[in-house]
Every structure is written in structure tokens, then in C-alpha cells.
Amino acid sequence: MPVTLTELNTGDAAAFVAVCGPCYEHSPWVAERVAALRPFSSREAVHAAFERAVAEAADAEQLALIRAHPDLVGRAARAGRLTSASTGEQAAAGLLALAPEEVAAFTRYNAAYQEKFGFPFVICARENKKDAILAAFPRRLAQTAAEERTTALREIGRIAWLRLCDAVVEG
Asked: What b/e string do you get for 26-48 counting C-beta neighbours within 10 Å, with b at 16 or more?
């Protein structure tokens, strides 16, 4: 059940983190850093504060944030060990009911990506479907490490925005 922006602004810091922490996969530190900045005038303002916290985070923290994301169609997904948000996002993209050859393609791409960049491929699955995600792998594998880190953080921001919209309603 979503909370209102008013409730988010007037609750204690722990309540804020309980609502907003899951916006960033296994990384409640983002919400912890912005809780003291309340009140926020809109969800957009909350998200902008989140984005600033991520941008100002140490390199190691940013890398840990990226690494907190599961591989798409990875072992955790196939074993049913994703967060409920990740499960819903992968399902919405059509990633939980793939043919064996599609699973094999994701496995190959995930391995190549992890080998090159040292973190999982992150894309906003709710804004993409299976074919678009598969098509994105070769393009993103062609990027430099710095470009791809920026891309991954941008995608994480998109994921966080959609999760925030699910968790908080204006009012």
C-alpha cells in the first residue's frame, strides 16, 4: 500500500527508509542519506535528492550499488530468490518465461558483461521488453567501463523512480 508524500515527510527517519530504501536494490543507504532533507515538495524532489546522494557517493559505494542488482535471467531469478520488486520487473519484461535458447543467450551475455565490467548488466526492465534488452547487450558491451558505469547508474535511477512512484503517492 503506497504512502502519501505527506506521510513520508512527517514520519520518522526509520519510516522513510522503510518506504524508500527498497527503491535502490539492497541499498537502503541512499534513503538513509536523504531522510534528513525532508520535507520534499514532490516525488520528483525526493528522486532528485536520491540521485544527488548516488552522484556524491564514493566510487566504491556506487560500484556496490550496481553490484547489488541481480543478473537478468540469472541464477537468483531462476531459483526464485529475487526481491519482489525485481521479480515483478523481470516478469513485466517477459524474462521469467523464456525458451531455453533465450536463457542461454542471457547467460552468455551476462557472463561477457560481467567479465568486461565486473558488475551485472542493469537496465530498467519495466521500460524494456525481452527483445530490447537482448539488443542492448551488444551495444552496451561496446562501451568503455566509464561509459557503462554511467549508463548503469542512469538505469538504476530509472528503476528507483518507478519504485518510488509505486511506494509514494502525491498528497
From this structure: ebebbbbbbbeebebeebeebbe
Report how far residue 18's alpha carbon sits from residue 122's, in angstroms, rounded to the nearest whole number: 23
Going from N- to C-terminal start, the domains of the chain cover 71-148
User: Could you list the pLDDT tens digit for every one of the 171 residues in the chain?
Assistant: 899 999 999 999 999 999 999 999 999 999 999 999 999 999 999 999 999 999 999 999 999 999 999 988 888 777 778 888 998 898 889 988 899 999 999 999 999 999 999 999 999 999 999 999 999 999 999 999 999 999 999 999 999 999 999 999 997
- Residue partners of 41: CB distance under 8 A and separation at least 6: none
Residue 133 burial class via C-beta count within 10 angstroms: exposed 0-12, middle 13-18, buried 19 and up: buried
**Cα–Cα distance measured from residue 74 to residue 82, given in angstroms and rounded to the nearest whole number:** 10
**Annotated active-site positions, please?**
69
- The topology under which CATH files domain 71-148 is UraD-like (1.10.3330)
Handedness of CA 28, 33, 37, 42 (dihedral sign): negative
